[in-house]
Structures are given as structure tokens and as C-alpha cells.
Design brief:
Blueprint: H1 3-23, H2 29-36, H3 40-46, H4 50-70, H5 75-97, H6 104-130, H7 140-151, H8 160-178
Length: 186
């Protein structure tokens, strides 16, 4: 894809994520195009419909997960970074998922995204298992579930410090559930 076409496509995804979060999934797509600074034709050349645009937003969120997991931070800090960065994406996903047309193609695409997310978290789970931070049965899918549980606690925190404090409290509870227990087998 040409650089200018990539820039316009990225602008559409950013604009859609913002507008869907602000006003809901059913906002007219012309408003998404206007916010992105492009015409309707550009929007429809890039995305066949509203659902394709929503799926592109989710794909970009998983790209962000890949970047965070690839970093060399300790397990707990990586979870904090994922949860803080993903809180907006999780809220947007919940908002869109309630209105997304549940046809077989969309459901298959959502399942593929879930599989991709679990795969993106697998390297983190492997490192955590190797370091003894989590039980041997914890994989990317279970880490994803734990992150969704913790991420669901956020409701527009007033400060980042307050968000990190609440997140760490929630992580203490969740990590106790996935941490290995000496002498206990699964």
C-alpha cells in the first residue's frame, strides 16, 4: 500500500475509534470520513462496510498488544501497561460488539481476532511460566481473560496515579488466582 493511502486508512481507523467511543457505533460513516479529512469514496475504498471498519480498529489494538508484549519489562509491569493501554479498546469493543451485525462472517472475524489476541499474549505467558510468575496452565487466552477482568474495572479514572493504584489492587487479586501454589498440582 502506498504511503499516502496508508496514512488515509490510519486516519479513518483513528477517527472511527474516536467517534464510535464518543457517540456509538451507529454514527453515520460520513462523519467518520469527515473527521479523518477524507471523502466517502476513500472510506469505502478502504472498508466495505461499518463492520470491516470496526474489525480494523480491533486489529490495530492487537498490534499495540504485540508491541507491548515484545518489550522487555517485568511481567507485572507489562500487565499494567496492557491494562492501562487497553482500557479504552476494551470499552470500545464492548460498545461495538453489542451493535455489530452477528452474521457468520463477522463472528468468524471476531473469533479470529480473539485467537490472534491469545497468540499475541502467548510469549508473555511463556515468560511468566518460565519465571514462576504464573501456573503452568496459564496461556495467552487465560492472560487475555485476566486482562479483560481487570480492565473492566476502569471507568474514566481521574488521574493516571489513581488508575495505576486501582489496577495494582485488582492485579493482586487476579494474580493470586494464576500464581503457582507450592505443593499443589493442577
Amino acid at each position: 500500500m502506498r504511503r499516502d493511502a496508508r496514512i488515509r486508512r490510519d486516519a479513518l481507523i483513528t477517527a472511527a475509534a474516536e467517534i464510535f467511543a464518543e457517540r456509538g457505533y451507529s454514527v453515520p460513516l460520513e462523519e467518520v470520513a469527515a473527521r479523518a479529512g477524507v471523502g466517502r469514496g476513500t472510506l469505502y475504498r478502504n472498508f466495505r462496510d461499518r463492520e470491516a471498519l470496526a474489525l480494523a480498529i480491533f486489529e490495530r489494538e492487537i498490534d499495540r498488544v504485540d508491541e507491548i508484549v515484545a518489550g522487555d519489562r517485568p511481567f507485572r509491569q507489562t500487565l499494567v501497561d496492557l491494562a492501562l493501554g487497553g482500557a479504552r479498546g476494551t470499552a470500545l469493543f464492548a460498545r461495538i460488539a453489542t451493535e455489530l451485525v452477528a452474521d457468520p462472517a463477522n463472528m468468524a472475524a471476531l473469533e479470529a481476532l480473539g485467537t490472534r489476541l491469545a497468540g499475541a499474549l502467548d510469549p508473555l505467558a511463556r515468560r511468566a511460566r518460565a519465571n514462576g510468575d504464573v501456573r503452568d496452565d496459564v496461556d495467552g487466552a487465560r492472560l487475555g481473560l485476566a486482562l479483560r477482568m481487570v480492565g473492566g474495572l476502569f471507568y474514566d479514572p481521574h488521574t493516571e496515579a489513581a488508575a495505576v493504584r486501582r489496577l495494582n489492587e485488582a492485579l493482586d487479586i487476579v494474580l493470586d488466582g494464576i500464581r503457582p501454589v507450592p505443593g499443589r498440582t493442577i
